[in-house]
């Protein structure tokens, strides 16, 4: 088993002389996989139907000769300029009605038949030509599926999708609550995408448009996959992208790829970057059902905070890669290999920076490349987690499209906060779908799961009755999958929630803790009260409750807890805690323990076995250096 | 005489079984009026020309059987989806040229003939069918008239309106000062709405577009009113909406409705909500010329601060309704009766919240419903006010469309501040139009009345010379109704204003007070100086002046005063003050005194007569409980 | 030699009676030049082809009779309404696709043939009619060239311009780095303006669009100039406008005008207004190659801070005009003579304010008008400057269109900061183009010159080797004129820049100073280290370096210095310093020294000769009064 190491390689930006230097440097750095072709459409089909594969042949041959495998991309995320001129109806339209112009990337409507035809065409041509190339390790269909569109072609496809989903307009009208605001539909043709309108959009229409686009893009992916599969047996993937928008349902898409691959770009410069790294890796593992997955892209030398790129401190690049590997990634790849000389992303970090190979950054890349092979033995082992956090992208979409009682309600923030509380305690968690089998977990956490299906609610009841510890956060279980209000979890929790009290300021708890953002007037029907609000309009009312149900326990936390109070709850739930970021992998009787020290001081932890990076035996304890890491195999 | 109690009822969202429960709960709550049909167009005409009145018949019968009267709405504020498909030219266009899409509410251009035809059609059908229904108490035409549009159809109507207003292009060119920036019009066809343009718009063009839309919407209202009147003699109203935009001239519209009705939604969570409540109620009474009016909508359980709904504290819902009744409302109604299960406003507060009738909120609704009948005797009495504040929506529009010397000049804020100073002193004020007969008022306040007609300026002079006390605020009387600069009030005030000095920071006054936002280089020509600027570039120059003119006095306040200084001025002007929000009503020799205690402690005030809520006699004093109220009738 | 004094005069706003009063007041104020006609198109051609020059004849005659010369404008910046109706394709389109509407000013696309034809037509008609008018002193073509457009007509012209610039698509593809993101062009028709697109635009495409528009507008200017020149030998100018956007390359345009003229509107109320005044005047002198130029517009009585107009304190209006004259302006003109009664700019300050001539403002205008003739003798002398700051508008455009490593990188801010450091020390600086002959300067400063051509880089090397002191600021020399990364100045500086470290917070320097915004990992290859970073990730690394190269020195400052540290550097570089804003002019053996005191206390400075304002002899020292100025002629 091998761990992949490398990144996106866009050689069309340089002369062949640079290609040779690149392959030499890749060898030096231990690179064994590069993604080629993501942005090559205009270089391999400069004019409609005119293919110029020669340069790509040469690049693949060079890579193969250098021992570097290729993850070959279909270039369909960025059609060439001529495509937009010939098919102006395939340029995307925003919700405001602005028809975008070519000149960036990803500027197409995936509902346009012309686009879909062209995408299948170029994918087929590539598959036929390179199916048997010895460098080929994997197919990389498209790039970061995620662009949507509100044009008439998309509207037509949306209507088809709705017909399929609902069968009848009666059912759609009910699901969308169209009786409100005179929106009842009596003709399928009347339905439009949620474009700019006079006032608030219909929230279920909005959610369905998000669902539709995920499905539509998945159909586009499947088409290319089928075309590629017709020529090649190599694994096929696509790189999932995760940010503030997230247009596709990755948990659902995971079933369609041969390996889950993600791009991961933290957007904070401080310790938040490390928290996000663990979060993203655990999420990827959740999507892949616990199976190995692949970190397809990350930034080498810097973190993009939005306003500026924060250059990573010495050693930090490795400390962002190791957690991915620890948490199940089959390697660590970057965007991109060599920094662009020009173009829109010329300042995007790269493995070979503008300063060239004689640089701290490339030295760290080379060091990491030397470490990974020593860790390859973990590749097929399982990550050990006894806690699960529920994750459902539809809940996120629902909260983005609904005019909620507080604009600060933020699904991603709530889930990240829950994950962070465990991460800080060194406790590894899995992410699970609300309707997944949860029986293997001692603790299941449900942060702000606003939208929950009846089936998922029943699943949680079963989990608790069979002995699980369930912790439900505020604003959970409020609506069904049509976004119609009903409290699905109150029976299980043993409470009645009479009023929401969104908070502008913090509120005190009787325990000394604090709540923020949200509170609720909770009536403890069959639950015991664990903590109460102290002061404010809810003074003395329950804030945290706990109910015994069957063999298990169901907690309810009706506000956003401060970190310290949350840490106490984590301690009470798990009884454990680690001084460092810690991940355990297991296979048979063998355990591998990753420990990553993001602090300024060396930390000594108990350990016995062999430390894989150094190869040294460990007897009783191991020192994890400040800013470093240790991986110990124990039998 | 009855006080109305109830709210918007949108039964098409529920099954008939719920309707029965609704009527039962309405009886429990003392509800006697509900607004039905506001959003029912797609439910009563699901396909063009196909009417399905059956369900509405049933609802009205049920309500009537339950003793609940109906304010029946024409549903024209929200045409059904099919209307937009059949008449795409009737979808509104923003100033940026974005043609909006159906999917919210209020998405139509009121200038489109197709819309106007359809609106008359559905209004007529309703009027014919329900004119004689025994539940019918009132007609509610449309909902919150307020949407505008910049489409070619609107442009054509705008040109017609201008032709009517100005008669000739010469007159229009003069009014718009088109000699500046090469805007002279020599052809009516050249005139467009103030759409997005390269730089600043012509301020008079902007103001006229606002005037035009108010008139155009009024014409649309009149058409429906005529259609309804043809079938029914019941009173006809429409609900005025008041926010940051305010597209119609309510003072002018008031003459066209049988009863002035307003929607009122404060946008602050703190005491500002109570200040806004009194402000909104006084404004409504001003529009109705002192006659009774009706609070048609308010939110039951929460205040929308923009970022979040703030749940009203116990008792506060009543303390928001009582001031409306005290200040002249013929009742207290809410939007909406039962909280929606889904749709865009599912989290809008309701009389029956999601928690159902077994809830604090519904109990408070029921309590209020029991109190109102005890206050019904005040319904026809007059509100007593000896102070008037001038209000002119055209001035507001003018200040919104002109590039003023300071972007912080804000007409609404200035008027609210003036009202607040009196409210805090427990002094009731009326709002009056600048050209109204002011002779009954001891004090008239003119906050930032930037635009003033020559006639109104003369009216103020007459008022003062006849013995009135006039207080003019900064930046008043600057432009005429064409927005051409001339100082209309300086002779009356006895000052010359040589320079404007917009302020970034506060400025001290010699009296110890402070000014903010604005100051002026005032020369006291024939006025005495009451206070002076201290420090800054205007050090020693007059800040507040006072001139005796005929039998009266004209004050000028050239800056925005701090609250304490303003309170001193109120005390000097009125010589009175109350410890609580206090409103007096009078009819013949009978006086009713409403006292509302928004504080945390009981307050004892002198009173003799009968307290209406408790029915108890009062001899010398009454205790107004913390968070409560008392209404005493004295002979 | 005369100094011009006056302003824009838009008499079409008033009756002829006012014109007579205007000319009388102009005489009183010493006005000798007014700009007429800027916004007169609709007044002189109210209908297509129908000219009404009579009123303009009358105005010019009146002015001439009053001894006031005329700078006669072609009114092409604001076509009349009928033009937009007849040529809707000539209305401009934004990058978002919004077609703007008439109703402001400057609403046209300069690429539209109909517009160009009409502009030549009206310019020719004016030139023919007034070429021989005795009042005519100068032609003022158009006004503040600066509007751009993204319409199809502009796209066509852009493609033509690109064809001209690059010759071949291969060359364009290389320059634009189109190999990245699949943007390779194989057909000229595929190229579009950088309209709204899916994600980041191509930075070189963006830069070329800015270059194109500067050239296209210059072509439009040249057309009018040729038309005017065919009838008249009077000097021809156009007024350059400078703000946050700056659509044309003034340094390049300067070669095409007979006199460089600028509009100058500081946007800060505090001392920043004085800093900007000196900055703007020095920049204008730089564009004109050191030759006299003309301040065509400034605001009389107030400074526009964006949110509000800040009224200028007594004397400050003169203290904003004098620095312009000192720094090379042939006069001081204002927008506008008389404040408008209405229209979009009714609150724009004017020489005759709304308060009329009996006002402080007009008295100050009159006083300044009396001073200027006493200073006329300086008009042809040279400004003495031993320091040059490099300025290149293309660098600014490049930084506006590129996704830089920090969004806080701001070319204008960096150049202003450099200029401010010298201004505060009373040191006069020139602005120079990067490829200019720099040999006359003792010090050359290069603030954040991100884009630099190879030729300019060589020019700097020559400058240093010949004995110059060069100070290069952070983020300089990074890209070539195609925006392709290469460090052009590191050899000269003797450093290697391995990493950029954009800063969120300040960083300490070993010297005790502080850096902000930006830092770099600098390796001193052949440079000595002058200062180091202290703390942070770059602790101990070089912050400021200095290299001896030939007879000169090349400094590198890798961060944005705090003001105090920068002041120390200025002192070290120049060895001089003045307590006041000081400018020296020289002609032969005569020196004129302008000293302007922006402070609150009188300052005595050494001086000998004659003080021109008072006409008094000066022997050894002169007192510059608080808020005043002195101009001493020495032989």
TrEMBL record, chains A, B, C:
Catalytic residue list: 144, 297
GO biological process: galactose metabolic process
Gene Ontology terms for molecular function: beta-galactosidase activity; metal ion binding
Organism the protein comes from: Kribbella jejuensis
Enzyme category, top tier: hydrolase
Protein name (database record): Beta-galactosidase
Keywords: Glycosidase, Hydrolase, Metal-binding, Zinc
Family per record: Belongs to the glycosyl hydrolase 42 family.
Hydrolase is among the record's keywords: yes
GO cellular component term, pick one: beta-galactosidase complex
Coiled-coil blocks: none
Binding site residues for Zn(2+): 109, 149, 151
Location of the Beta-galactosidase C-terminal domain: 580-633
């Amino acid at each position: 088993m091998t761990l992949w190491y490398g990144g996106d390689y866009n050689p069309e930006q340089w002369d062949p002389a640079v290609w040779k230097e690149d392959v030499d440097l890749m060898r030096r750095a231990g690179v064994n996989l590069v993604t080629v072709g993501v942005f090559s459409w205009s270089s391999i089909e400069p004019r409609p139907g005119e293919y110029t594969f020669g340069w790509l042949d040469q690049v693949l041959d060079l890579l193969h000769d250098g021992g570097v495998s290729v993850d070959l991309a279909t270039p369909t995320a960025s059609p060439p300029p001529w495509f937009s001129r010939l098919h102006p109806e395939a340029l995307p339209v925003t919700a405001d009605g602005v028809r975008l112009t070519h000149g960036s990337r990803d500027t197409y409507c995936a509902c346009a038949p012309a686009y879909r035809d062209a995408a299948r065409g170029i994918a087929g041509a590539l598959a036929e030509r390179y199916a048997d190339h010895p460098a080929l390790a994997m197919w990389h269909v498209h790039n970061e599926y995620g662009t949507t569109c509100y044009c008439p072609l998309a509207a037509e496809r949306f209507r088809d999708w709705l017909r399929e989903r609902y069968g009848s307009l009666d059912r759609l009208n009910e699901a969308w609550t169209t009786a409100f605001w005179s929106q009842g539909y009596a003709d399928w043709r009347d339905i439009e995408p949620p474009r700019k309108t006079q006032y608030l959009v219909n929230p279920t229409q909005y959610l369905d448009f998000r669902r539709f686009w995920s499905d539509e893009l998945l159909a586009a992916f499947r088409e290319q996959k089928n075309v590629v599969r017709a020529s090649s047996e190599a694994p096929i993937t696509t790189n999932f992208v995760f940010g503030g928008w997230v247009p596709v349902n990755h948990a659902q898409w995971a079933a369609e790829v041969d390996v889950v691959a993600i791009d991961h770009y933290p957007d904070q410069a401080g310790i938040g970057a490390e928290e996000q790294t663990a979060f993203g890796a655990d999420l990827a593992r959740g999507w892949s059902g616990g199976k190995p997955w692949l970190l397809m892209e990350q930034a080498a030398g810097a973190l993009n905070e939005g306003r500026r790129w924060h250059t990573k401190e010495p050693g930090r690049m490795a400390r962002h890669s190791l957690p991915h590997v620890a948490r199940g990634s089959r390697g660590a790849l970057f965007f991109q290999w060599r920094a662009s000389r020009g173009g829109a992303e010329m300042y995007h970090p790269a493995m070979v920076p503008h300063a060239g190979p004689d640089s701290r950054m490339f030295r760290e890349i080379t060091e990491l490349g030397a470490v990974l092979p020593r860790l390859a033995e973990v590749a097929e082992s399982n990550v050990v987690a006894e806690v699960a956090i529920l994750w459902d992208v539809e809940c996120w979409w629902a909260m983005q499209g609904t005019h909620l009682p507080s604009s600060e309600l933020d699904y991603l923030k709530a889930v990240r906060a829950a994950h962070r509380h465990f991460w800080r305690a060194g406790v590894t968690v899995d992410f699970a779908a609300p309707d997944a089998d949860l029986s293997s977990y001692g603790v299941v956490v449900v942060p702000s799961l606003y939208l929950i299906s009846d089936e998922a609610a029943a699943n949680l009841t079963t989990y608790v009755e069979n002995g699980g510890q369930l912790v439900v956060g505020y604003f959970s279980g409020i609506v069904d999958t049509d976004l119609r209000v009903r409290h699905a979890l109150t029976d299980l929790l043993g409470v009645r929630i009479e009023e929401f009290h969104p908070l502008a300021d913090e509120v005190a708890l009787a325990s000394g803790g604090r709540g923020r953002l949200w509170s609720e007037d909770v009536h403890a029907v069959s639950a015991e009260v664990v903590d109460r609000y102290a002061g404010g309009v809810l003074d003395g009312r329950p804030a945290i409750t706990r109910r015994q149900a069957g063999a298990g326990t169901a907690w309810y936390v009706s506000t956003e807890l401060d970190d310290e109070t949350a840490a106490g709850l984590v301690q009470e739930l798990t009884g454990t805690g680690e001084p460092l970021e810690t991940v355990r992998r297991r296979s048979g009787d063998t355990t591998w323990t990753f420990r990553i020290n993001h602090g300024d001081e060396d930390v000594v932890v108990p350990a016995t076995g062999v430390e894989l990076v150094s190869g040294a035996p460990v007897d009783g304890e191991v020192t994890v250096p400040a800013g470093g890491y240790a991986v110990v195999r124990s039998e």
